Amino acid sequence: MDYKDKFKGIFYGVVDIVSLIDTDYTILMVNKAYENLLNKSADECIGNKCYAIVRNRHEPCEDCPLLHSWVGNDPAEKLVISLGNDEVLITRHPIYDDHGALQGVFEIGRVITGELKMQQEIQHQGRLKIMGELASSIVHEIKNHLAGIGLMTVSVMERLNQKDALYQDLDSILHEVHRLEGLLESLMNFAKPSPFVIKKAHIHQPLDNTLSLLSKKLSSGRIKIRKIYDPKAPKVMIDSAKMQQVFFNILLNSIAAMPGGGEITVQTALLPAGEPAAGQGQRVQVIIQDNGVGIKEEDLPYVFDPFFSKSSQGTGLGLSIAFKIIELHHGSISIQSQEGKGTTVRITIPACS
Predict the structure, then answer these.
(1) N or C: which terminus of the chain has fewer CB atoms within 10 Å of its end residue's CB?
(2) Considering the domain 3-111 in this protein, what is its CATH number?
(3) In what order do the strands lie in the sheet with 332-338?
(4) Residue 344 has pLDDT above 70, yes or no
(5) pLDDT tens digit string along 247-262?
(6) What is the pTM of this model?
(7) d(CA 317, CA 190)
(8) Euclidean distance between CA atoms 81 and 100, whole angstroms
(9) Lowest model confidence (mean pLDDT) among 11-25, 151-165, 186-200, 294-308
(10) DSSP labels, 6-66
Protein backbone atom coordinates (compact mmCIF):
# COMPACT_ATOMS: atom_id res chain seq x y z
CA MET A 1 0.00 0.00 0.00
CA ASP A 2 1.33 3.45 -0.93
CA TYR A 3 0.52 5.06 2.40
CA LYS A 4 2.83 2.67 4.24
CA ASP A 5 5.86 4.42 2.81
CA LYS A 6 4.69 7.70 4.34
CA PHE A 7 4.97 6.29 7.84
CA LYS A 8 8.16 4.22 7.68
CA GLY A 9 10.34 7.04 8.95
CA ILE A 10 7.94 7.71 11.82
CA PHE A 11 7.63 4.07 12.82
CA TYR A 12 11.27 3.41 13.43
CA GLY A 13 12.08 6.75 15.07
CA VAL A 14 9.26 6.98 17.63
CA VAL A 15 9.91 5.70 21.15
CA ASP A 16 6.19 5.14 21.82
CA ILE A 17 4.37 1.99 20.69
CA VAL A 18 3.37 2.33 17.03
CA SER A 19 1.51 0.01 14.67
CA LEU A 20 -0.39 0.11 11.40
CA ILE A 21 -3.46 -2.09 10.95
CA ASP A 22 -5.40 -2.82 7.77
CA THR A 23 -9.19 -2.79 7.43
CA ASP A 24 -9.33 -6.57 7.88
CA TYR A 25 -7.48 -6.39 11.25
CA THR A 26 -4.15 -7.41 9.68
CA ILE A 27 -1.03 -5.90 11.23
CA LEU A 28 1.03 -4.22 8.50
CA MET A 29 3.82 -2.56 10.46
CA VAL A 30 5.10 -2.37 14.04
CA ASN A 31 8.04 -0.59 15.64
CA LYS A 32 10.58 -1.80 18.19
CA ALA A 33 8.58 -0.52 21.19
CA TYR A 34 5.60 -2.61 20.03
CA GLU A 35 7.81 -5.70 19.81
CA ASN A 36 9.23 -5.09 23.29
CA LEU A 37 5.82 -4.58 24.90
CA LEU A 38 4.31 -7.78 23.49
CA ASN A 39 7.60 -9.69 23.61
CA LYS A 40 7.11 -10.67 19.97
CA SER A 41 9.25 -9.97 16.92
CA ALA A 42 8.01 -7.93 13.97
CA ASP A 43 7.96 -11.09 11.86
CA GLU A 44 5.60 -12.72 14.38
CA CYS A 45 3.24 -9.73 14.28
CA ILE A 46 3.17 -8.55 10.67
CA GLY A 47 0.65 -10.38 8.51
CA ASN A 48 -1.33 -11.68 11.47
CA LYS A 49 -4.57 -10.38 12.95
CA CYS A 50 -4.28 -7.83 15.75
CA TYR A 51 -6.78 -9.68 17.94
CA ALA A 52 -4.71 -12.87 17.61
CA ILE A 53 -1.42 -11.17 18.49
CA VAL A 54 -2.65 -8.87 21.26
CA ARG A 55 -5.54 -10.86 22.75
CA ASN A 56 -4.80 -14.41 21.60
CA ARG A 57 -8.29 -14.62 20.09
CA HIS A 58 -9.61 -16.31 16.95
CA GLU A 59 -12.04 -13.54 16.06
CA PRO A 60 -12.34 -9.76 16.54
CA CYS A 61 -13.18 -8.55 20.03
CA GLU A 62 -16.90 -7.88 20.48
CA ASP A 63 -16.31 -4.34 21.71
CA CYS A 64 -13.41 -3.59 19.37
CA PRO A 65 -13.03 0.19 19.25
CA LEU A 66 -11.38 -0.13 15.85
CA LEU A 67 -14.80 -0.78 14.36
CA HIS A 68 -15.89 2.64 15.56
CA SER A 69 -12.90 4.27 13.86
CA TRP A 70 -13.56 2.45 10.63
CA VAL A 71 -17.24 3.29 10.29
CA GLY A 72 -17.05 6.84 11.61
CA ASN A 73 -15.20 9.98 10.64
CA ASP A 74 -13.59 10.78 13.98
CA PRO A 75 -10.06 12.12 13.46
CA ALA A 76 -8.80 10.15 16.47
CA GLU A 77 -9.96 8.25 19.53
CA LYS A 78 -8.28 7.34 22.79
CA LEU A 79 -8.75 4.39 25.11
CA VAL A 80 -6.88 2.51 27.82
CA ILE A 81 -6.28 -1.22 27.41
CA SER A 82 -4.59 -3.79 29.63
CA LEU A 83 -1.65 -5.72 28.21
CA GLY A 84 -0.24 -8.16 30.75
CA ASN A 85 0.71 -6.12 33.82
CA ASP A 86 0.68 -2.83 31.92
CA GLU A 87 -2.00 -0.26 31.20
CA VAL A 88 -1.56 1.32 27.76
CA LEU A 89 -3.14 4.52 26.45
CA ILE A 90 -3.88 3.97 22.75
CA THR A 91 -4.59 6.77 20.27
CA ARG A 92 -6.02 5.57 16.96
CA HIS A 93 -6.09 7.58 13.74
CA PRO A 94 -8.12 6.31 10.74
CA ILE A 95 -6.24 6.62 7.44
CA TYR A 96 -8.09 7.52 4.22
CA ASP A 97 -6.94 7.65 0.61
CA ASP A 98 -7.42 10.62 -1.72
CA HIS A 99 -10.97 9.48 -2.48
CA GLY A 100 -11.99 9.23 1.18
CA ALA A 101 -11.87 5.45 1.30
CA LEU A 102 -10.65 3.97 4.58
CA GLN A 103 -7.24 2.30 4.21
CA GLY A 104 -6.31 1.36 7.76
CA VAL A 105 -5.69 2.59 11.28
CA PHE A 106 -2.53 4.17 12.64
CA GLU A 107 -2.01 3.42 16.36
CA ILE A 108 0.22 5.15 18.89
CA GLY A 109 0.43 3.70 22.40
CA ARG A 110 2.04 4.80 25.66
CA VAL A 111 2.44 2.74 28.83
CA ILE A 112 0.77 4.67 31.66
CA THR A 113 0.86 2.05 34.43
CA GLY A 114 3.00 4.28 36.66
CA GLU A 115 0.79 7.32 36.06
CA LEU A 116 -2.37 5.39 36.93
CA LYS A 117 -0.78 4.02 40.11
CA MET A 118 0.25 7.53 41.10
CA GLN A 119 -3.29 8.82 40.52
CA GLN A 120 -4.72 5.95 42.58
CA GLU A 121 -2.22 6.66 45.36
CA ILE A 122 -3.15 10.36 45.42
CA GLN A 123 -6.85 9.48 45.58
CA HIS A 124 -6.21 6.96 48.34
CA GLN A 125 -4.19 9.44 50.39
CA GLY A 126 -7.00 11.96 50.01
CA ARG A 127 -9.56 9.47 51.31
CA LEU A 128 -7.30 8.58 54.25
CA LYS A 129 -6.87 12.26 55.16
CA ILE A 130 -10.61 12.92 55.07
CA MET A 131 -11.40 9.84 57.16
CA GLY A 132 -8.68 10.70 59.67
CA GLU A 133 -10.01 14.22 60.17
CA LEU A 134 -13.56 12.93 60.47
CA ALA A 135 -12.55 10.26 62.97
CA SER A 136 -10.64 12.59 65.27
CA SER A 137 -13.54 15.05 65.39
CA ILE A 138 -16.26 12.59 66.42
CA VAL A 139 -14.64 9.71 68.31
CA HIS A 140 -14.26 11.50 71.64
CA GLU A 141 -17.87 12.68 71.54
CA ILE A 142 -19.17 9.16 70.89
CA LYS A 143 -16.90 7.59 73.51
CA ASN A 144 -18.23 9.94 76.18
CA HIS A 145 -21.81 8.95 75.43
CA LEU A 146 -20.92 5.26 75.32
CA ALA A 147 -19.19 5.52 78.69
CA GLY A 148 -22.36 7.02 80.14
CA ILE A 149 -24.50 4.23 78.67
CA GLY A 150 -22.11 1.61 80.04
CA LEU A 151 -22.08 3.08 83.56
CA MET A 152 -25.87 3.38 83.71
CA THR A 153 -26.25 -0.19 82.42
CA VAL A 154 -23.90 -1.58 85.08
CA SER A 155 -25.69 0.46 87.74
CA VAL A 156 -29.05 -1.10 86.85
CA MET A 157 -27.56 -4.61 86.53
CA GLU A 158 -26.19 -4.41 90.09
CA ARG A 159 -29.76 -4.15 91.40
CA LEU A 160 -31.02 -7.21 89.53
CA ASN A 161 -30.71 -10.95 89.93
CA GLN A 162 -28.49 -12.50 87.27
CA LYS A 163 -31.29 -14.91 86.36
CA ASP A 164 -33.65 -12.04 85.64
CA ALA A 165 -34.55 -11.69 81.93
CA LEU A 166 -33.92 -7.94 82.12
CA TYR A 167 -30.42 -8.63 83.47
CA GLN A 168 -29.67 -10.74 80.39
CA ASP A 169 -30.93 -7.99 78.09
CA LEU A 170 -28.77 -5.41 79.86
CA ASP A 171 -25.78 -7.74 79.65
CA SER A 172 -26.27 -7.85 75.86
CA ILE A 173 -26.36 -4.05 75.79
CA LEU A 174 -23.14 -3.90 77.82
CA HIS A 175 -21.50 -6.35 75.43
CA GLU A 176 -22.38 -4.09 72.48
CA VAL A 177 -21.05 -1.05 74.34
CA HIS A 178 -17.69 -2.79 74.80
CA ARG A 179 -17.68 -3.85 71.14
CA LEU A 180 -18.30 -0.28 69.99
CA GLU A 181 -15.58 0.99 72.34
CA GLY A 182 -13.18 -1.43 70.67
CA LEU A 183 -14.22 -0.18 67.24
CA LEU A 184 -13.68 3.42 68.32
CA GLU A 185 -10.26 2.52 69.71
CA SER A 186 -9.32 1.07 66.31
CA LEU A 187 -10.61 4.21 64.66
CA MET A 188 -8.52 6.38 66.97
CA ASN A 189 -5.43 4.29 66.24
CA PHE A 190 -6.08 4.87 62.57
CA ALA A 191 -6.74 8.60 62.89
CA LYS A 192 -3.99 9.39 65.41
CA PRO A 193 -1.52 6.53 65.89
CA SER A 194 0.33 6.40 69.19
CA PRO A 195 3.98 7.53 69.10
CA PHE A 196 6.39 5.13 67.44
CA VAL A 197 9.22 3.49 69.36
CA ILE A 198 11.75 2.82 66.61
CA LYS A 199 14.55 0.36 67.32
CA LYS A 200 16.87 -1.83 65.28
CA ALA A 201 15.42 -5.35 65.06
CA HIS A 202 15.04 -8.37 62.80
CA ILE A 203 11.72 -8.44 60.96
CA HIS A 204 11.42 -12.11 61.95
CA GLN A 205 10.81 -11.11 65.58
CA PRO A 206 7.36 -9.47 65.15
CA LEU A 207 6.47 -12.13 62.57
CA ASP A 208 7.17 -14.98 64.99
CA ASN A 209 5.42 -13.17 67.85
CA THR A 210 2.31 -12.75 65.71
CA LEU A 211 2.31 -16.37 64.59
CA SER A 212 2.65 -17.43 68.23
CA LEU A 213 -0.32 -15.28 69.26
CA LEU A 214 -2.43 -16.78 66.47
CA SER A 215 -1.25 -20.38 66.93
CA LYS A 216 -4.49 -21.63 68.51
CA LYS A 217 -6.64 -19.89 65.92
CA LEU A 218 -4.51 -21.35 63.13
CA SER A 219 -4.65 -24.83 64.62
CA SER A 220 -8.40 -24.80 65.18
CA GLY A 221 -8.89 -23.52 61.63
CA ARG A 222 -6.75 -26.36 60.19
CA ILE A 223 -4.35 -23.86 58.66
CA LYS A 224 -0.71 -24.77 58.11
CA ILE A 225 2.08 -22.20 58.27
CA ARG A 226 5.06 -22.49 55.94
CA LYS A 227 7.95 -20.20 56.90
CA ILE A 228 10.69 -19.34 54.41
CA TYR A 229 12.98 -16.88 56.18
CA ASP A 230 16.04 -15.40 54.49
CA PRO A 231 18.96 -15.83 56.92
CA LYS A 232 20.75 -12.96 55.15
CA ALA A 233 17.96 -10.47 55.84
CA PRO A 234 19.54 -7.59 57.81
CA LYS A 235 17.97 -5.72 60.69
CA VAL A 236 15.48 -2.94 60.06
CA MET A 237 14.50 0.19 62.00
CA ILE A 238 10.96 -0.58 63.17
CA ASP A 239 8.45 -0.25 65.95
CA SER A 240 8.11 -3.98 66.62
CA ALA A 241 4.73 -3.62 68.31
CA LYS A 242 3.34 -1.66 65.37
CA MET A 243 4.75 -4.15 62.85
CA GLN A 244 3.21 -6.96 64.87
CA GLN A 245 -0.14 -5.20 64.50
CA VAL A 246 0.39 -5.08 60.72
CA PHE A 247 1.13 -8.80 60.50
CA PHE A 248 -1.73 -9.60 62.90
CA ASN A 249 -4.27 -7.75 60.72
CA ILE A 250 -3.01 -9.38 57.51
CA LEU A 251 -2.93 -12.88 58.96
CA LEU A 252 -6.43 -12.49 60.42
CA ASN A 253 -7.66 -11.69 56.92
CA SER A 254 -5.93 -14.80 55.56
CA ILE A 255 -7.47 -16.97 58.27
CA ALA A 256 -10.93 -15.57 57.53
CA ALA A 257 -10.39 -16.29 53.82
CA MET A 258 -9.86 -20.02 54.51
CA PRO A 259 -12.90 -21.24 56.46
CA GLY A 260 -12.19 -24.81 55.40
CA GLY A 261 -8.48 -24.71 56.22
CA GLY A 262 -5.49 -24.16 53.99
CA GLU A 263 -1.91 -22.94 53.98
CA ILE A 264 -0.25 -19.60 54.63
CA THR A 265 3.30 -19.00 53.43
CA VAL A 266 5.31 -16.38 55.31
CA GLN A 267 8.48 -15.47 53.46
CA THR A 268 11.23 -12.89 53.92
CA ALA A 269 13.91 -11.80 51.50
CA LEU A 270 16.63 -9.19 51.08
CA LEU A 271 16.10 -6.96 48.05
CA PRO A 272 19.49 -5.72 46.81
CA ALA A 273 20.06 -2.04 46.16
CA GLY A 274 19.33 -0.98 42.61
CA GLU A 275 16.37 -3.27 41.95
CA PRO A 276 13.19 -1.37 41.00
CA ALA A 277 11.27 -2.65 44.02
CA ALA A 278 14.09 -1.75 46.35
CA GLY A 279 14.48 1.94 45.55
CA GLN A 280 17.88 3.47 46.32
CA GLY A 281 19.04 1.13 49.07
CA GLN A 282 18.57 -2.39 50.34
CA ARG A 283 15.16 -3.39 51.61
CA VAL A 284 13.73 -6.32 53.48
CA GLN A 285 10.62 -7.81 51.95
CA VAL A 286 7.91 -9.79 53.73
CA ILE A 287 5.48 -11.86 51.66
CA ILE A 288 2.36 -13.35 53.23
CA GLN A 289 0.50 -15.62 50.82
CA ASP A 290 -2.63 -17.69 51.36
CA ASN A 291 -4.67 -20.04 49.19
CA GLY A 292 -8.02 -18.72 50.38
CA VAL A 293 -11.07 -17.42 48.57
CA GLY A 294 -9.25 -14.39 47.17
CA ILE A 295 -10.53 -10.89 46.49
CA LYS A 296 -12.75 -9.82 43.61
CA GLU A 297 -10.91 -7.78 41.00
CA GLU A 298 -13.32 -4.86 41.35
CA ASP A 299 -12.67 -4.72 45.12
CA LEU A 300 -8.86 -4.61 44.96
CA PRO A 301 -8.54 -0.81 44.48
CA TYR A 302 -10.41 -0.25 47.76
CA VAL A 303 -8.87 -2.79 50.15
CA PHE A 304 -6.80 -0.13 51.94
CA ASP A 305 -9.72 2.28 52.28
CA PRO A 306 -11.12 2.83 55.80
CA PHE A 307 -14.25 0.82 56.59
CA PHE A 308 -14.08 -1.18 53.37
CA SER A 309 -14.96 -4.75 54.33
CA LYS A 310 -16.93 -7.59 52.78
CA SER A 311 -17.12 -9.38 56.12
CA SER A 312 -20.00 -8.85 58.53
CA GLN A 313 -17.53 -9.39 61.39
CA GLY A 314 -14.85 -6.95 60.24
CA THR A 315 -14.51 -3.22 60.88
CA GLY A 316 -12.78 -2.48 57.59
CA LEU A 317 -9.89 -0.77 59.40
CA GLY A 318 -7.30 -3.57 59.58
CA LEU A 319 -5.63 -2.97 56.22
CA SER A 320 -6.05 0.81 56.47
CA ILE A 321 -4.12 0.78 59.74
CA ALA A 322 -1.51 -1.56 58.23
CA PHE A 323 -1.08 0.76 55.24
CA LYS A 324 -0.55 3.77 57.49
CA ILE A 325 1.96 1.98 59.74
CA ILE A 326 4.02 0.76 56.77
CA GLU A 327 3.91 4.23 55.23
CA LEU A 328 5.26 5.75 58.47
CA HIS A 329 8.11 3.21 58.30
CA HIS A 330 8.96 4.60 54.83
CA GLY A 331 7.99 1.24 53.38
CA SER A 332 5.44 -0.01 50.89
CA ILE A 333 2.61 -2.54 50.94
CA SER A 334 0.75 -4.04 48.00
CA ILE A 335 -1.84 -6.76 47.49
CA GLN A 336 -2.33 -9.13 44.59
CA SER A 337 -5.28 -11.49 44.58
CA GLN A 338 -7.26 -13.77 42.35
CA GLU A 339 -10.74 -14.83 43.31
CA GLY A 340 -10.83 -18.52 44.14
CA LYS A 341 -7.04 -18.88 44.24
CA GLY A 342 -5.75 -16.73 47.09
CA THR A 343 -4.09 -13.49 48.09
CA THR A 344 -0.49 -12.29 48.32
CA VAL A 345 0.57 -9.31 50.44
CA ARG A 346 4.03 -7.81 49.88
CA ILE A 347 5.65 -5.45 52.37
CA THR A 348 9.05 -3.79 51.97
CA ILE A 349 10.94 -1.94 54.70
CA PRO A 350 14.28 -0.11 54.34
CA ALA A 351 17.16 -2.19 55.69
CA CYS A 352 19.65 -0.77 58.17
CA SER A 353 22.78 0.50 56.48
Answers:
(1) C
(2) 3.30.450.20
(3) 223-228, 262-271, 283-290, 342-350, 332-338
(4) yes
(5) 999 999 999 999 999 9
(6) 0.53
(7) 8
(8) 29
(9) 186-200
(10) HHHHHHTT-SSEEEEEETTSBEEEE-HHHHHHHT--HHHHTTSBHHHHHH--SS--TT-HH
